Amino acid sequence: MGRDPEQHPVIARHLTDTVDPAVRGHALGVADRARIRTSIGEYRRLFEAVQVDPALLPSYGDQAADEIRRWAPALHEELAAVARGADVPLWQLGMLNARTEILATVGATADGECTTAVYVGGAGGPHTIQTWDWHEEFTGTKSLARFPASSRAGEVATFTEAGILGKIGLNSAGLGLHFNILSHTADGTRIGVPVHAVARRILDQATTIAEAVDIARSADVSASTALTVVTHDGRHGDAVCVELSPAGTAVLSPDTDGYLLHTNHFLDARLSTGELAASTAGTYARLEHITTGRKLIASPDPAHWTELLRAHESDGAPVCCHPQPGLPFHQRWRTLLTVRLDLTEGRLDCHDGGPCTAGEETAWEHF
C-alpha cells in the first residue's frame, strides 16, 4: 500500500468533556474520519485475504451493531453517531467492532499476537505492560481517546483502533484493562457481542474486579479473548485475567508471588481443551519467556518491564514481532504498540512501536 512500516505515525488523540454518547461519537467520527475510512478499507482487504465472503460483511456488521444495541444501548448510540460523523454506513462500524468475531467465522488464527505481564506482589500500584501485535498495515489507525464516563468510573482513557469502541485502557476509579485475543473451537458460529465492546463497557462502568467480571460474564460472545483487569485502591494493586469464550468464562488469579502473565492460549484447564492455537505456535514460547524473566516486571523501574518483552523470534520467543519479508498481507505481523497502565497517575504510557525501539523514556507518550 506504499507505506513504510518502520515510520510510525503519531497516534491520534481525541479528548472530550461530554458524557453524551451521541455528541461524543459524532465529534469523534468527524475528527477521525480519514482513519476510520482507512480502517474500513484495510479490514475489508484482510477479510478477503482470509476467505471471508465479502457479500456477508453487511449482515455481519448489522448483527454486531444489533448485539451492541441490545447489550449496551449507550455504546450503540455512540457507534451510530461515529458513523454519522464519519459519513459511513453503520454496518461498516459494526464490521470494524466485530473484526475479531468475523475472523473467527473462518477460523483465522496466527502466531503474531499480544503478550501481557502484570505484577501486583508489592506495595503501590500494579506494574503492567503489554505488546499489541497486529497486521502492519494497521499502523496508521491507532487512536487514543479520553472522555468522562456516565458512571462511578469517572474518566476513561483508552487505546484502540479508529472506529472501534475500545481496547486497552483505564479509568479514574483505579481500574485498568489489558487485552489478548484467544481462539477456541466454540468460536465463530455466529456474530455475538463484540469483545472490543466488552472491553469498553468494563472501562466505562467497572470500579472493582467483581464488577468487571460480572460485565464480562453478561456478554453473549461469539469469539474468545483474555481480559486482564487490574485495580489500585491508592495503596495496593490487584488483578485477575478473565478468559472469555462462547464455551464459558474462567477467572484466573495471580500466582502466589503476585505475577499474572498471559499470551494467546487458554490457561484454564477446562477451556484449554478447546484450544485452537497450534502446538508449535509462538504463544507458548512467549509465555515461557516472560515466565522465566518475570522478576523484571517486579522492578520499580519501568525500563525493566520493557526489557522483559524485548525478545524476538531469533531469541526463541517472538514477543517483539517483526514480519518476515515476502509474506502475504494477512501474515505480516508487527508489534505496533507497547503500552503500560499507570493506575497511580491515571494515564496510559504508550510507545508507538515494539519494545526493541522503546529504550529511552522519551520514546513514550503519556496520555
Describe the structure.
This protein has 367 residues and is α+β, with helices and mostly antiparallel strands. The protein has 2 domains: 14-105, Arc Repressor Mutant, subunit A (Orthogonal Bundle), CATH 1.10.10.2120; 116-366, Penicillin V Acylase, Chain A (4-Layer Sandwich). 31% of the residues lie in helices and 23% in strands. It has 11 helices and 14 strands. It has helices at residues 21-31, 33-49, 57-71, 73-86, 90-97, 99-105, 195-205, 209-218, 282-292, 295-298, 302-308, and strands at residues 12-15, 116-119, 127-135, 142-148, 155-161, 168-171, 175-181, 225-232, 237-245, 248-252, 259-262, 333-342, 347-351, 365-366. The strands form 2 sheets. Strands 1-4-5-6-7-8-9-10 form an 8-stranded mixed sheet. A hairpin with a 4-residue loop joins strand 8 (225-232) and strand 9 (237-245). Helix 1 runs parallel beside helix 4 and helix 7 (195-205) runs antiparallel to helix 8 (209-218). It is globular and about 50 Å long. The two termini are 30 Å apart. Mean pLDDT is 93; it is low at 1-9.
